[in-house]
Specification:
One of its GO terms (molecular function) is oxidoreductase activity. The chain is an alpha/beta fold and about 230 residues long. It is about 20% helix and about 35% strand. The strands form 2 sheets. The protein has a 6-stranded antiparallel β-sheet, with helices on one face. Strands 10-9-8-7-11-12 form a 6-stranded parallel β-sheet, sandwiched between helices.
Length: about 230
């Protein structure tokens, strides 16, 4: 990656949540993104630079803050690099990229996520809610009720926006979390005039696509992002 393609961001805050590290970055005023896009992060471990792609978890903001939810399970190199980071450090990131996006037309939408697949959908949902009164539904599945990224933020959004329906599932029940998986109640939220946005483990995404297609949803209404 050339110097022109690398942006220096400053870490404003860092929090740990089970297998995830939540980072808030301050980016230059020239940094642009669209809801649903991703960036590449470049970590230095010793003399080696490792690069990982991350969907951006925040909507475009006037204050140029950007949030990442970094999953480092099964990735010891990233885990070590993240462990060494602290507020005030800098992190090299790439320009935002990707074509996973909300349609321009105003439609009802269902967002279906598993694990860290919540990140691009959170960006879309936060951008969308103040701009439409169309029904917006999030079906989100994770392993543990204690490890739900951005749960408090989603609960706040659901209290502020009556057209937003939030359903969170885990292996066990917890506060504001039901027992099940992201597709447990999908049948209740299928309508032919809605669009569907999927991101998560490949098996979950494929199962959701199959279920939606079997229910008569056109492929053009189903939007997916690679996990």
């Amino acid at each position: 990656m050339t110097e022109k393609q690398t942006i220096i961001a400053t870490i404003s805050s860092k929090a740990e949540l089970g297998p995830y590290t939540l980072l808030e970055l301050k980016t230059p005023s020239s940094y642009l993104q669209n809801p649903g896009q991703y960036c590449m992060a470049h970590y230095k471990v010793g003399e080696t630079v490792i690069t990982r792609p991350y969907s951006i978890a925040s909507e475009p903001r006037d204050d140029q803050t950007l949030e990442l939810c970094v999953s480092h399970a099964g990735d010891p190199d990233t885990a070590q690099a993240i462990k060494n980071l602290k507020a005030g450090d800098t992190l090299d990131i790439s320009p935002a990229a990707g074509r996973f996006a909300i349609p321009d037309h105003d439609v009802a939408a269902v967002f279906i996520a598993g694990g860290s697949g919540i990140t691009p959908l959170r960006s879309m949902i936060r951008w969308r809610l103040p701009r439409t009164q169309q029904a917006t539904t999030l079906l989100y599945g994770c392993q543990s009720p204690e490890e739900v990224p951005y749960l408090e933020d989603f609960l706040t959004l659901s209290s502020q926006h009556p057209h937003f329906t939030l359903k969170v599932y885990a292996d066990q029940k917890g506060p504001s979390v039901g027992q099940g998986h992201a597709l447990s109640d999908l049948d209740q939220y299928v309508a032919l005039d809605q669009h569907y946005f999927l991101c998560g483990p490949p098996d979950m995404v494929q199962a959701a696509k199959t279920s939606l297609s079997d229910s008569g949803i056109n492929d053009r209404q189903i939007h997916t992002d690679r996990y």
